[in-house]
């Protein structure tokens, strides 16, 4: 739909992690955290100088441009190391190509519109809100970094990246590998944060693009196809301004009905748990009922959060909403996974809660954008669809629609089923 963003994420990680460095990761990073704090103080000063010069010259000076690029790359390298998105110990200078998780930036400064330079911090606020939900404010908080707390937050304090890093720490200690879903979600968070920093620091005048597919599709493989998939027309971004303005009010009947349906679904899920535990296969009738519930839940949230535009039906019928849910047919499930399902779902629920912050931020920003333009922004809509897909997979796993674990990768699965 448009030219690729000039700030590219590079992923050359092989998922392998060294257990000893994983265990002591935070201690090993202490020299970098000190260095990052000092470098951030320098960037705070030079960013103001860069801004003033750029207003008059129409583009940043070459030397300051290169300094900002090095800082953004170093920030990405350090964040990737701390969050276990990358394994090697990073360098201290932010050199291009020296780390498996890297950021490719414009080599030379480009001419930019002066009024956008003058208002850059104000214009960057929406992107910084999304960046804060994904990977911390990173470069976006350099103007307000005070003390140790702000510095730590700037190196990866976002909810999604933090949760992926914590869960990845346990997984890497146990298996010596970082799970692909957590690695991909973390890499996406770092990539978007780098785009936000590059925009704020005048490295580029292209606004950050929150589309997870564009960020990752050329740098990492798609995960295997999941039994629970979100489908729909990705190109219909039209939104009715009247229904956007009154979206919460219009959603009230659905929210009441969803609460009532959730009570019955909970009772059905308990019954399904006993059936699946003894038979090894869930009951077909309960499976269909719970599938309808999860699909209806997706339709309601898509409408409420402006991912979809039409008013949804109340029955969760497949094919009745632009953002729809496909669930594969009933299959036999592993009994031990069934027995411990409520425990096994906890890590996925944590990732889902972290994604919920990004989903809420996207919905609020989309509300203002849609009122002004009559359409939803492409990147935020796709970020929201990713969050809703993962939420549906978590709900389907919890309600025994499948025993396939939710996949945290922002990319949709390919057409090859995992046997």
Describe the fold and architecture:
The protein is mostly helical. The protein has 2 domains: 8-216, no CATH class; 228-398, no CATH class. The protein is 59% helix and 4% strand. The protein contains 17 helices and 4 strands. It has helices at 19-23, 25-28, 30-57, 62-82, 114-118, 120-135, 147-154, 159-175, 180-200, 212-216, 241-245, 247-279, 284-304, 335-339, 341-344, 346-373, 378-398; strands spanning 8-11, 101-104, 228-232, 323-327. The strands form 2 sheets. A two-stranded antiparallel sheet has the order 1-2. A two-stranded antiparallel sheet has the order 3-4. Helix 4 (62-82) runs antiparallel to helix 9 (180-200), helix 12 (247-279) runs antiparallel to helix 13 (284-304) and helix 16 packs antiparallel against helix 17. The chain is globular, with a radius of gyration of 22 Å. Mean pLDDT is 91; it is low at 137-157.
Q: Give the overall average pLDDT.
A: 91
Structural class: mainly alpha
Q: Tell me the number of structural domains.
A: 2
Pattern of helices and strands: EHHHHEHHHHHHEHHHEHHHH
Total strands: the figure is 4
C-alpha-based Rg, rounded = 22 Å
Provide the low-confidence segments as ranges: 137-157
Q: What best-fitting shape do the alpha-carbon axes yield? A: globular
Question: Cα distance, first to last residue?
Answer: 35 Å
């Amino acid at each position: 739909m448009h030219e690729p963003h000039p700030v590219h994420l590079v992923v050359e990680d092989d998922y392998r992690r060294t257990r000893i460095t994983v265990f002591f990761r935070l201690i090993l990073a202490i020299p970098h955290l000190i260095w990052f704090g000092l470098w951030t103080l320098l960037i705070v000063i030079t960013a103001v100088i860069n801004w003033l010069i750029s207003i008059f010259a129409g583009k940043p000076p070459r030397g300051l441009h290169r300094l900002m690029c090095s800082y953004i790359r170093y920030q990405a390298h350090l964040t990737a190391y701390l969050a276990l998105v990358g394994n090697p110990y990073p360098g201290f200078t932010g050199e291009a190509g020296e780390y498996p998780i890297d950021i490719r930036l414009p080599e030379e400064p480009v001419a930019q519109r002066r009024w956008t330079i003058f208002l850059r911090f104000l214009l960057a606020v929406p992107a910084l809100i999304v960046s804060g939900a994904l990977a911390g404010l990173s470069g976006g908080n350099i103007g307000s970094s005070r003390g140790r707390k702000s510095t730590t937050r700037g190196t990866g304090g976002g909810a999604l990246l933090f949760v992926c890093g914590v869960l990845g720490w346990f997984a890497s200690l146990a298996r010596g590998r970082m799970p692909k879903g957590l690695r991909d979600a973390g890499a996406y968070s770092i990539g978007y944060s780098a785009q936000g920093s590059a925009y704020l620091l005048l490295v580029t005048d292209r606004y950050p693009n929150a589309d997870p597919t564009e960020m990752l599709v050329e740098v990492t493989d798609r995960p295997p196809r999941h039994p629970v998939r979100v489908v729909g027309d990705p190109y219909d971004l039209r939104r009715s301004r009247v229904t956007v303005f009154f979206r919460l009010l219009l959603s009230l009947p659905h929210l009441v009905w969803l609460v009532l349906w959730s009570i019955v679904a909970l009772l059905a899920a308990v019954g399904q748990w006993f059936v699946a535990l003894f038979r090894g296969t869930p009951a077909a009738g309960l499976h269909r009922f719970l599938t309808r519930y999860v699909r209806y839940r997706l339709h309601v949230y898509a409408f409420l959060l402006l991912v979809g535009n039409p008013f949804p039906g109340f029955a969760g019928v497949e094919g009745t909403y632009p953002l729809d849910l496909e669930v594969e047919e009933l299959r036999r499930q592993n009994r031990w996974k069934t027995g411990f399902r409520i425990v096994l779902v906890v890590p996925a629920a944590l990732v889902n809660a972290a994604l919920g912050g990004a989903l809420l931020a996207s919905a609020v920003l989309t509300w203002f954008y849609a009122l002004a333009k009559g359409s939803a922004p492409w990147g935020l809509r796709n970020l929201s669809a990713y969050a809703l897909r993962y939420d549906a997979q978590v709900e389907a796993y919890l309600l025994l629609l499948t025993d396939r674990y939710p996949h945290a990768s922002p990319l949709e699965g390919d057409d090859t089923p995992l046997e």
